[in-house]
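Dear support,

I submitted the protein below through the web form. The confirmation email said the job was done, but the results page showed an empty box. After a refresh the structure appeared. I'm attaching both so you can tell me whether what I see now is the final result or a partial one.
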Amino acid sequence: MSVNLTVKLVLDEDGAIDEAASQIAFTSALSAYKAERELEASTIETAVHAIFDQYRGVSVNMPYLVNSVLRSLNVQPANFKAMESKVLAFVRSNSDRLANKSKGIEAEAPRTRTFGIKKGSGGGVVRWSDIPEEEDEK
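What the results page shows now:
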């Protein structure tokens, strides 16, 4: 994945590129970009947890969860797809790993991460902190 970052080069009095000042401008733009991404990740995390705060102990299907988060973030059509991908990535990266035989991935033990994803009937995403451990064994 690559990202475009726009940086204005700084010129000296003679119109030549001031490399030191331009490097400072790049570092500043990079820091601002990183801060924006961290804020975005934090905002997504807060919005996902808010949905589970509303529906404690309930398995929430992925499309409902993602759309509820996007609605709460007031996502606009112009960035809907990008934000949808980011919300899905957040939930999946913070969910226990499921087995994937074709990729040779073994399943993680339940409750290894913040969320669990269950497939099939009665499936969806659960926040482990809302589910008593006895219910896992059923």
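Response: this is the final, complete result; the empty box was a page-load delay. Residues 99 and 106 are 5 Å apart (CA to CA).
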